[in-house]
Amino acid sequence: RYTSVHIEELTVVARDTKLGPEEITRDISNLAETQLNRLDDSGITYIGAEVSADDVLVGKVTPKGETQLTPEEKLLRAIF
């Protein structure tokens, strides 16, 4: 049996946008817990984690604008 280890350093930047700052977090609403199981509490893959293609390495959320809200979300914002 052969095993290989590949180590690669990646960089992600949380920027300030016109709609607010991007955030590095583990709290990503549209992903299942199984997709986030390699992230630590701060939203970054923990040291020593085995990752493969399509794994989430960093939880980064970007504020979305009003134009991207669904009609239901717009109604809730108008009410509250």
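Next protein, fold it too.
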Amino acid sequence: MRPFCDKKDPLPISMQETEPDNSRMLEALKKKSAASKKHMADAISFGQYRKDGGSNV
């Protein structure tokens, strides 16, 4: 009976331990940072209007 009890089936490949190639948290932070930089680049700067001689404003 002992030979039948000690047998272990190998784990499926999807359940075996693997080293991650990237971090979900870091990917989310990079995506948020890129969106934030794009948002800042799209912002309007009114300081340039005054420098161009907008004294009648």
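About the second fold: The chain is about 50% helix and 0% strand.
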